[in-house]
Write a structure and sequence with these properties.
- The chain is an alpha/beta fold.
- It has one domain: Vaccinia Virus protein VP39 (Rossmann fold, 3-Layer(aba) Sandwich), CATH 3.40.50.
- The protein has 8 helices and 9 strands.
- The strands form 2 sheets. It has a 7-stranded mixed beta sheet with strand order 3-2-1-4-5-9-8. A two-stranded antiparallel ribbon has the order 6-7.
- Strand 8 and strand 9 form a beta hairpin.
- The chain is globular and about 40 Å long.
């Protein structure tokens, strides 16, 4: 654990092992991704104004961005890995911005920020700063939804990827420490993972107050 802490302190949000995994596995990841958009996407979109502008953080193969675009939303699809962004470009037929979470500098630009299974790679100590950047990027009244793997520790999985596992209490503390979020819900659910298993997850829905 000390070695992991040292690696993360050295690289910040850019954990090279995790980024390298997604860079090398981008085509396989896209080919084996779920066939349908996230089941929570419809709930998220129901609270975003029709035709609103949405930022997706960690868009992966672009599946959710494609679904949102088809419904008339204006989508800014981003991913921190160039090879993954390329896979999304093939699906979306337009450029996808390569951007790490710590590079988000937009202000009052979006009606929604969607982060499905992406912020779980942010070290726990760095999460409030990222959440502040998301809060700042939202317009007043804008909605944010993110999903995290549930747990009480941080570390690497069998594939070498870094995860910061979360509890409802740790997520609530991170959001409250970052900005004046209105936390609408923190939901527990069971979902899949890249290795084909099932595990507990958490979904946070929060709003920037008007």
């Amino acid at each position: 654990m000390k070695r992991l802490a040292g690696e993360l302190e050295e690289h910040g949000l850019c954990d090279e092992v995790t980024l390298s995994f997604y860079d090398a596995q981008a085509r396989i990841y896209a080919a084996t991704a779920r066939d349908a958009p996230s089941e929570r996407l419809c709930r998220f979109l129901s609270h975003v104004p029709a035709g609103g502008r949405i930022l997706e953080l960690g868009c992966g193969d672009g599946r959710d961005s494609e679904a949102m675009s088809a419904l008339g939303f204006l989508i800014d699809a981003t991913d921190g890995v160039a090879a993954m962004a390329k896979q999304a470009e093939g699906r979306l037929k337009r450029p996808v911005r390569v951007m790490r979470f710590d590079q988000l500098d937009a202000q009052c630009a979006y009606d929604g920020v969607w982060a499905n299974a992406s912020l779980l790679h942010v070290p726990r100590q760095a999460l409030p700063d990222v959440l502040f950047k998301i809060f700042r990027a939202l317009r007043p009244g804008g909605l944010h939804m993110a999903t995290y793997k549930a747990g009480e520790s941080e570390g690497r999985d069998r594939l070498g990827r870094y995860f910061s596992y979360a509890t409802s209490q740790s997520l609530e503390a991170a959001y409250q420490a970052s900005a004046s979020w209105e936390i609408l819900s923190i939901e527990h659910f069971e979902g899949g993972d890249y290795q084909g298993g099932r595990r507990p997850w958490l979904a946070v829905t929060a709003r920037r107050p008007c």
